[in-house]
């Protein structure tokens, strides 16, 4: 064959090695170099004279691959463990959210019942105040009968409100 000027990348492609390996080979064989118009290094080489066979990967490289594969498996196991923990935490979160929603509903119901009880209490206090003022103002028998009737009605209202509060 004839001598060809090749860049390190082209030499590496022909020999099926990397550009850096081609550069190292050219230095080791002391091949003549020159610059191209583009400013790249050209190596004058007769490919028929070069007997280069790429080396198989060394045992060190295989050990690194084995070590990295083991590390990947360890990390996958860790990811699976963390995902299981996250699922447990998510279930706890959902359970607590449902509990908080139930408590909120109960609180709103209790607030509504409290407001209703306060309204009944205010109305009953007004009725008691009215009975007291009527009792002081007139002591006739007719007013006494009305007072007793209103007092009975008041007692019934209190009992009814008490029953509602106990439910």
Describe the protein.
The chain is mostly helical. It folds into 2 domains: 4-45, Arc Repressor Mutant, subunit A (Orthogonal Bundle), CATH 1.10.10.10; 59-166, no CATH class. It has 4 helices and 3 strands. The chain has helices at residues 8-15, 19-28, 59-137, 141-166, and strands at residues 4-7, 33-35, 41-45. Strands 1-3-2 form a 3-stranded antiparallel sheet. The termini are far apart. The mean pLDDT is 85.
How far is the first residue's CA from the last residue's CA? Answer: 107 Å
Shape: rod-shaped
Main sheet specs: 3 strands, antiparallel
List the total number of helices. Answer: 4
Task: Point out poorly predicted stretches.
Answer: none
Instruction: Output the helix-strand order.
Output: EHHEEHH
Structural class: mainly alpha
Strand content: 5-15%
| Tally of separate domains | 2
Task: Set down the secondary structure blueprint.
Layout: E1 4-7, H1 8-15, H2 19-28, E2 33-35, E3 41-45, H3 59-137, H4 141-166
Antiparallel strand pairs: 1-3, 2-3
Helix pairs in contact: 1-2, 3-4
Summarize the structure.
The protein is mainly α. The chain folds into 2 domains: 4-45, Arc Repressor Mutant, subunit A, CATH 1.10.10; 59-166, no CATH class. It has helices at 8-15, 19-28, 59-137, 141-166; strands at 4-7, 33-35, 41-45.
Keywords:
167 residues, Arc Repressor Mutant, subunit A, 3-stranded antiparallel sheet, mainly alpha
């Amino acid at each position: 064959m004839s001598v060809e000027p090749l860049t390190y990348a082209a030499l590496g492609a022909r020999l099926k090695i990397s550009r850096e390996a081609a550069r190292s080979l050219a230095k080791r064989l002391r091949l003549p170099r020159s610059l191209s118009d583009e400013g790249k290094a050209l190596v004058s080489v007769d490919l028929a004279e070069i007997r280069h066979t790429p080396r198989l990967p060394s045992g060190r490289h295989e050990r690194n691959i084995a070590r990295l594969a083991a590390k990947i498996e360890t990390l996958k196991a860790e990811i699976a463990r963390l995902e299981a923990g996250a699922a447990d935490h998510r279930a706890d979160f959902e359970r607590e959210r449902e509990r908080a929603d139930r408590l909120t509903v109960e609180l709103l119901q209790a607030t509504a019942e409290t407001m209703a009880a306060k309204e009944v209490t205010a109305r009953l206090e007004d009725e008691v105040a009215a009975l007291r003022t009527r009792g002081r103002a007139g002591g006739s028998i007719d007013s006494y009968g009305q007072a007793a009737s209103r007092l009975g009605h008041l007692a019934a209202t209190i009992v009814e409100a008490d029953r509602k509060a106990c439910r």
